[in-house]
């Protein structure tokens, strides 16, 4: 993180999550499954303070009480916005709908890859609103796993966008419940939200695929 500007998103993966704001809405309800160091929360609340977006809900789920305590202590995120729970279990208890679900987990092997197991993707789709979007970080540990994941996503979502980066094995995948516009990298780079959050333009995007 930047000490002088802690609201900035320095990771290309986190920057790509800003794609959720390309779908213009009067307000956004967001569920972030995994708090980490609170980078997404700091950035989104900053954008809200600058009146570039309006957040009706920003809910973060974190398994570790220690992580939650540190983030609240140093970054002063509202206690009401964070719930200590296991993300996989929590998604099955959600009763309200969200416009966006964010997920920043990485898997090195099939045994840990819960996206290919059970009904997580179907449940995420159920939790999302009619035009909702699921955005997540993914590390393709095998070609077969990536192909299988894309097949599962197309079962529960109408359109899928894959963002590939320079110098990173990770990709970001956006799965949408509606047929949105094809991702335009130039439009993305010029968007006021993106301009506000980038320390430098470009964000390392190498190629974008749409399915």
Automatic annotation (TrEMBL):
Gene3D superfamilies: Vaccinia Virus protein VP39 (3.40.50.150). InterPro entries: SAM-dependent_MTases_sf. It comes from the Bacteria. The lineage of its organism: Bacteria, Pseudomonadati, Pseudomonadota, Gammaproteobacteria, Alteromonadales. It comes from Pseudoalteromonas phenolica. This is Spermidine synthase.
